[in-house]
Amino acid sequence: MTATFATDKLKWTRKPATFSLSDEAITITTRSHTDLWQRTYYHFRNDNAPVLQMETDEDYFSFVVRTEFDSKCRFDQCGVVVYLDSDNWLKASIEYENESIQHLGSVVTNHGYSDWATTEIAADVKEMWYRLSRRGQDFRVECSTDGRQFQQMRICHLHKAKGEVSFGIYACSPEDSSFTARFTNLSLGECEWLAHDGQEPDTLD
């Protein structure tokens, strides 16, 4: 597997009204009232965010992308995604909250139920790198402010991620707003999530 990213293999799930696509950069201008969320506490379901992905049957890979944005409305977000279907997906992003804070976090959805894990960061952060790694049905999401030093955000399992999966980028505006997200430095290469070298796996009796 090479370290280049073939933009001609990308496919839209819900194409946005305004976007640009080239080998140098991808931009998505969001529509208002778009989001990815399923059930869990809030008692609503949203599945209308634009998603741009490629497919692979590689069990081990790492995907890297740099995001730039100037969102100013609550819940505006852009980042990485593994979207298998409406009920099974993973996303990681920064969500704007107010003039003081944003939420850097992730949502994992299995069998139609979403969770949400976040940490607060300053509202003046307008750029973030993400590295998404796959090891079978397990995934790790990392973030970085410079594209060199990555910090782990989350390790999770997608029950439906068997064989071929789709992964890529997304952007959305759950409330009455719109902004333009810019994605650059996309690369796909060997898995940089190394095999676990600690406790041995449990054995079945």
Provide an overview of this structure.
The protein has 205 residues and is mainly β. The protein has a single domain, classed as Jelly Rolls (Sandwich), CATH 2.60.120.200. It is 0% helix and 52% strand. It has no helices and 17 strands. It has strands at residues 11-13, 18-21, 26-29, 36-37, 46-47, 51-56, 60-68, 77-85, 88-96, 101-110, 113-114, 117-122, 127-135, 138-144, 151-157, 165-172, 180-189. Strands 1, 6, 8, 9, 10, 11, 12 and 16 form an 8-stranded antiparallel β-sheet that branches. The chain is globular, with a radius of gyration of 16 Å. The model has no long low-confidence stretch (mean pLDDT 94).
Q: In short, what is this structure?
A:
The chain has 205 residues and is an all-beta fold. It is 0% helix and 52% strand. A hairpin with an 8-residue loop joins strand 4 and strand 5.
Work out the count of structural domains. Answer: 1
Structural class: mainly beta
Q: Give the count of helical stretches.
A: 0
**Low-confidence segments, ≥5 residues, pLDDT <50?**
none
Defining traits:
mainly beta; Jelly Rolls; 205 residues; 17 strands; 7-stranded antiparallel beta sheet; 8-stranded antiparallel beta sheet
What's the structural blueprint in terms of helices and strands?
Blueprint: E1 11-13, E2 18-21, E3 26-29, E4 36-37, E5 46-47, E6 51-56, E7 60-68, E8 77-85, E9 88-96, E10 101-110, E11 113-114, E12 117-122, E13 127-135, E14 138-144, E15 151-157, E16 165-172, E17 180-189
Antiparallel strand pairs: 1-6, 2-3, 3-17, 4-5, 6-16, 7-13, 7-17, 8-9, 8-16, 9-10, 10-11, 10-12, 13-14, 14-15
